[in-house]
Amino acid sequence: MDTFARFEQAIRDALLDTTLITADLIDLVAPKATGVQADLALPCFRAAKMRGSNPAQFAQTLANALKFTHESLVLKATALGAYVNFSLNPITFAQSVLHDIGQGKAAYGRSNRGQQQAVVVDYSSPNIAKRMRVDHIRSTMIGQAIVNIYRSLGYQVIRMNHWGDYDPQLGISLAAMQHFQHRNGNGESMLASLEQQAQQYQADDQVHDLAQAWASKLASGEPQAITLLQQLVDLSLSANQANYRRLGVAFDVQHCESFYAREAQVVIKEALHYQIAQLDSHVAIVKDLLDEQGKALPTLLLNRSDGSTLYITRDIAAIKYREALYQPSKIIYVVKQAQELHFRQAFTISKTLGYTKADLAHVACGMILGPEGRANPHPRFSTTIYLEPLLDEACARAKTLLKQKAIEAKTSFTSEWLNEVAEQVGVGAVIYHNLQHDPAHDVVVDWDRMLAFDGNSAAYIQYMHARCCSILRDFGRLPQNYNGRELTHPAEQALLKELARLPQVIVDAAERYAPSVVADWLYATAKAFAIFYDACPVLKAETLALRAARGQLVAATAQALRNGLGLLSIAAPERM
């Protein structure tokens, strides 16, 4: 149990000891009144009504009956109107937070709340033989952060990449693959070369017939077509792996859409059998379907007239497959916002057919836009934003800034250090800029904001972490014995309160499927540390006891920032 949880429990225990209120009436909330110097509040309306008392009078009676020891995390309880307000004890609070972080270290903020329940997260989902585009980029970064957050809460997370291999242009890609010679590049450059070759085929007047011929060969299972498709899959996996590695992304399972095609035919048969769908000219049609909120869903098809399956049928088949294999408590899809209706329909049919008991969630992703609100912010990004050039440009800009700052500070550096930290800062800038916003919001590429060392950016948070590490290097060996009671300065207490929030922040981020909750906490903590750094000397503290306690606070801040950045797959450099 973390410090804030123990603080809340101490309040509940003291309230019950008064015998004036029962457990079901204790609802602790943030203080409501403006300017109240308190950390939690108890509204007394319901409890007063049960006793036939005036809420304000009951609040005063309750506050007078409460008792706390000097060693309690609760300093005092005061009545204000119909509320009892509770304040943290700064003396015991500091020691408790530092102890939590010192004991937890890299595990601070984590819990076993998930109790190893299985959670499937479906994210990234690029197309075979295509470079990763805007919607895949956001899905990839948001999805990996959700994976990290749920794992930190003790869930068994299955990371799934659902590759699209039903592209209408797949026949052209197969034809291009047959003659593709440029397979020695890295990352997206290989896929770019393949796309270029496919474009040359598209210029051919016979391209439609060529594409249809290869598509037919694939549908009939012709060995050459199957071999070429596997080569396309292998090439795509290899090309995107370099990008995934840079972003700290990894998957447990990677299946193409076609993997679920056979099971999708079973879905159609069962939908017809249970009269969820009706057959009309060989097409299974779903009508009059209501979602979980009772809202009518539009009519949809489960197959084409030639019997082939559709995107939605294969997604329903994937849900059925994942339930059978993992029995997950949740299946989370991190996919572009435009697919909202698609997933409402897929989820409703899956539940209606009894395919899963899991909570099904669609985390809707916005787009990455350029400064003018378009999806091509820079000529180097060609007709749309691709991941590799986006990361490369971010790292190049970070390298220039870091070199400039080192020269201004007259600090020596090596090319190895510069390259390593530029990669960490550049990639971190791209990730954080995507995750600091609500997943559904569009994100505008703004290089100045993304790489600012003095604003809400990864670079600012990384810089504050590096400053912590610099202080600790100068400090030397931290004393094992310290007294957290020394940390009573308002800036110290404000920083401690931010550090203490991390366990609950992780829970909130998971419940809302919102990595932005963690990003907000990181920025607030970095700002609190900057204020503390300016107000409270560490190395030149007034006494040795205060120096030791502040050194521990700096170490705790560095650890907490590392943990928070790690949840977003962002590196924490020790020197910047």
Structure, explained:
With 576 residues, the chain is of the alpha/beta class. Helix content is 53%, strand content 11%. The chain has helices at residues 3-17, 45-51, 55-65, 90-104, 134-152, 170-178, 188-202, 207-219, 223-247, 261-273, 311-326, 340-352, 387-408, 415-435, 447-450, 458-475, 490-512, 516-535, 544-567, and strands spanning 40-43, 74-80, 83-88, 118-122, 156-163, 253-256, 277-280, 283-286, 289-290, 296-297, 300-301, 330-336, 359-365, 368-369, 443-444. Strands 6-5-4-12-13 form a 5-stranded parallel sheet. Helix 5 crosses helix 17, helix 6 crosses helix 8 (207-219) and helix 18 (516-535) runs antiparallel to helix 19 (544-567). The longest helix is centred in the middle third of the chain and has 25 residues, at 223-247.
Number of strands: 15
Mean pLDDT: 91
Q: Strand content of the residues, in percent?
A: 5-15%
> Main sheet: which strands, in order across?
6-5-4-12-13
CATH class (first level) name of the domain at 386-567: Mainly Alpha
Radius of gyration: 28 Å
**CATH superfamily annotation of the domain at 386-567:** Isoleucyl-tRNA Synthetase, Domain 1
Q: How would you sum up the global shape?
A: flat
Structural class given helices, strands, pairing? alpha/beta
Largest sheet: 5 strands, parallel
Q: Please give the alpha-carbon distance between the first and last residues.
A: 35 Å
Q: What name does the CATH topology of the domain at 386-567 carry?
A: Isoleucyl-tRNA Synthetase, Domain 1
What's the helix count? 19
Considering DSSP H and I runs of 4 or more, what fraction of the residues is helical?
40-55%
Give unreliable regions as ranges. 377-383
